[in-house]
Known about the structure:
The complex is a heterodimer.
Chain A: E1 3-7, E2 10-14, E3 19-26, E4 32-38, E5 43-49, E6 56-58, E7 61-66, E8 71-76, E9 85-92, E10 98-100, E11 104-109
Parallel strand pairs in A: 2-11
Antiparallel strand pairs in A: 1-3, 3-8, 4-5, 4-9, 6-7, 7-8, 9-10, 9-11
Chain B: E1 4-7, E2 10-13, E3 19-25, E4 31-38, E5 42-51, E6 54-57, E7 64-66, E8 76-78, E9 87-94, E10 100-102, E11 106-110
Parallel strand pairs in B: 2-11
Antiparallel strand pairs in B: 1-3, 3-8, 4-5, 4-9, 5-6, 7-8, 9-10, 9-11
Amino acid sequence: EDKVVQSPLSLVVHEGDTVTLNCSYEVTNFRSLLWYKQEKKAPTFLFMLTSSGIEKKSGRLSSILDKKELFSILNITATQTGDSAIYLCALRESYGKLTFGQGTILTVHP
Amino acid sequence: DAEITQSPRHKITETGRQVTLACHQTWNHNNMFWYRQDLGHGLRLIHYSYGVQDTNKGEVSDGYSVSRSNTEDLPLTLESAASSQTSVYFCASGDRAGELFFGEGSRLTVL
């Protein structure tokens, strides 16, 4: 059965800090790994990773996948209070279904 | 614009009552999913459907059922609500390889 483990479970930083969120996984047939950001309501999509070593980037956020060591990281540089959220990592093994990790709660103080 | 909507957004019920949470999407996606979210557990899959008349159990399906009579709707039914089913429920839809789109969530309290 697929397994997704995120670390740390919670993190408190100050504005301007850089953070790295981790996601490790176990899977039989890997298809893709996705990152979501969840504020008060619905999770919103950030990145989908399918190939090792290719960085996906959007503004201050970036993510990379290592399929040999079975992990992904999400980096946020120059954090802002608006980055405070739950960050969710999810694994797709087959045909659309996603298995989620526990999430990392990020709090950014001014 | 295409969207996915859930109702009700908040519900308080009593132990033993039947509850149905509605999910409606206008993306025309074949795949629809129900997840529950509890502190420390992330999102856990309850039931999912890959098309009309198709339903499948997820990792926490006990006490829940779904039906898929058309592409747009996947209602989630709690046959006899229990306090352990107090949670936030998210419906999602997507195609086989892309991202999932989530509804705004339904907060259910079982007293």
